[in-house]
Amino acid sequence: MEREVIQSVGFRNIKKDGEITGFQFKVRLPYYRGIFLSQIRPGTLFIDGEKIEKENIIWNIKGEDYTLEEMKDDYTTQWDVTAPAVLKVKKAGGLAQGYHDLKYGFCFTSSYMPPIIQDHLDPDAESMVFMPEFGHHVNERRLLIV
Amino acid sequence: MYHYDRKGPKRGVALYSYSAEFGMTKTLEDCFEDLYDMGAHGIEILANTHIENYPYPTDAWVEKWFRLCDKYEIVPVEYGNWIDSHVLGHRDLTTHESAEMLKRDIRLAHRLGFTVMRTKMPVINDLLEPVKNWREIITEALPLAEELNMKMCPEIHTPSNLKGKLVTDFVEFIEKTGTKNFGLNIDFSVFRTGFSEGEWRDPLYTPNEPEDIIPLLPYIYCCHAKFINMSDDFRETTIPYPEIIKVMQEHGWDGYLLSEYEGADKYDYGYEVGQTLRKQHIMLKNLLGD
Questions:
Q1: pTM of the full predicted structure?
Q2: Contact list, A122 vs chain B (CB under 8 Å)
Q3: In chain A, what are the domain boundaries?
């Protein structure tokens, strides 16, 4: 696993029945403990500046696909710190060969942090105070599609 | 299963310390080997971090766990768990749901050979007060803890004080119920007296004297041997370790001191927390005479 949150391995177009239907990339959890899916606060993806809303991104954890709605109530499935999640985006024709700029925001809640901090978590903006063991909310990386 | 028979305070490591390296440059086995190098025989894991596919590890993973404990002469000491009552954004878990989550951890801790849990309570405000129904949650889980010989221990950490309300409430609960299955984990940050110039200090914090731990010793089932700064001649410059260890030895306390390094510099590129832990273990080994 790479130290960067957005992993270089796993970035590719998704093919279904010989047709490219979208693309995927992987993120690792930049926290010191695994979290249940209901703790994840997914945010917005920008791919080469194009905005993709959180509702249009599927999270794949341990081989299972989850929509935003499905994750909200799931507090038994854990996202492990050692296993990056695969994020899937529908896009007919996928991404073109060459470099792409990815910018993605997500964060997560913690029951032992004061609720006032929890209520104002914004996946698309950094916290007021950066704490390395919670990682950055917004991560960027420039990666190649072959 | 490996047994370590030494009496009194013993050396162990909280794998939390490896947070910045675990899963990237260190595997679980690497952490075990590092402990073995140090001659530490106790381990604390964080359930949600170090157990693959938590809360439902495979039998194969559990076998691997015991194989590692045997190979590296490690005793499973403390299982770090969270009562995650705020796990859903739109409502809190009920007392029963929270207790079920806790009981699931008690069973898993037992399956992995642990006898003590660092049970983190969900908080309700920025004074970090636990949820109002913590007594009810713990009470619902107590019969199972008793059956499986498990001790649930909230951690007492700076800015909390050993004479403060949080500790008093916990002790009152222990005395009222007479339970042997709920106790305390004292984090040595409560004894910190040294701060560098200009360093932020929590206004709520008052350091405890080493003697303040004495009345609590019967309820303490393990400690976090927190350290902030180890000098190159192997002294902790901010926490009075020799005095704390002496008090604990003189009062016959028997249990593990689990090293926990919380410094943010462990996230710096190239930082090896194992070397920082080894510095502290040189000090602890000398103080304990093991």
A1: 0.96
A2: none
A3: 6-145
